[in-house]
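Feature request, filed as a ticket because there's no other form

It would be nice if the structure record came with a short human-readable summary line next to the tokens. Right now we just get the raw output. Example of a typical job, pasted below so the devs can see what we mean:
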Amino acid sequence: MFFNAYQITQLGTYAVTATTIALAALIIFGFMTLPAQIKNISLSFLASEFVFFIYIVISFLYAKSRPGGIMPSLNSVMLAIFFQVALLMSLRTGTWKQSENDVHFFHKIVNIAAGYGIYQVIGQPIGLPLVNPWINGHMVEGFNWTETGTTLISGIGLHRAHALFTEPSMFSQIIAINILIYLLYDKSGSSKWILLNIIALLASGSGTGMIVLAVGVICLILMGKIKLTSTTLETFGVLLIGFVLLQIFASDAIVSIFNRAQEIFGSGSVNTMQAGWTTSSGYVRFFGVWKICKLAMSQAPLLGIGPGTVDQFISSLALGIRLTSDNGFVRIIIEIGLLGLLSYLVTMTYLVKQINNNNKWFFVVIFILLHFLGNTFLLDTYWILLIFFSYSVDLNQKEDL
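Raw output as currently delivered:
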């Protein structure tokens, strides 16, 4: 998941990355151990997955036969099924100790990525090596960070921190989830790592990570998971200090934050209006996608306009906006229709029901939020993350996650 900006090869329009190899290995291992693991898979979830597979194929055939429609992508059909099979093969029950070890492993690799992201920002003006690990011919098409940087802070050309992810926003979301897990378990000695991750989050310059963190903190407070311990007080204090330092040393960064907030609602100083639409990424992500969804539903509300067709559909509208749905729910509705969304939600509901984990509802909220912040339905990093946390714990033990 951490190397998904780099493709090994390309099959059609799909970039084969380390994530692809990991998911394929998981499926092979899952089939090998299926006889022993089948007891971990509920019949309801199995049936819902089978129905979802069949439905995707029906949606594909319908879109293919629809007169004047955009030709659907068989690759997208296979990719959707590939992710669902990987999820199915990953279901498992383990001990509390195994789950705790997995969480510690997640912390370690995200902390390394956070440190590297900070190194990228610091290393640019002083010319440190490996600041931007660009490999010609092996970068995933459509990634959001570039060889020349993506933002300016106080007149100094700086790349936004992205570590090895495809874009700064994905990096910031993973960092935010890491902070929230620290707060969820509030282990002693975690404050220094929270500090590192907060600095990395600010260095990413991405609002989506801040949204994940803010919503997650509110959920933890409402669930009674956050207490006013030294760790939580230090976390909020560091955030406050970070914004004060931005105001002192990079006041234009604060102005940029407010401009980006305005852009979400179709205003702001840097918008370009075309065909009555704003091209700002914030507006497209939070409002524009629903207008696009409405236009698509006017053509094929129940079965959708076809898997893998969202970019072509947006292009055909000639609205002057970037070609991405940036919303998992919207992409499902556009491509496989309202019935597809219903089938998907039923499948995910049965998945949640069979997971035995005391904190699963917190992760459910986070994963729902991720659907509103990115193109999750056919995003390999999302499915890796979901698989990682879809872990049932033996509730007969004294301690569990």
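Something like this underneath would help us a lot:
The radius of gyration is 22 Å.
Residues 144 and 167 are 5 Å apart (CA to CA).
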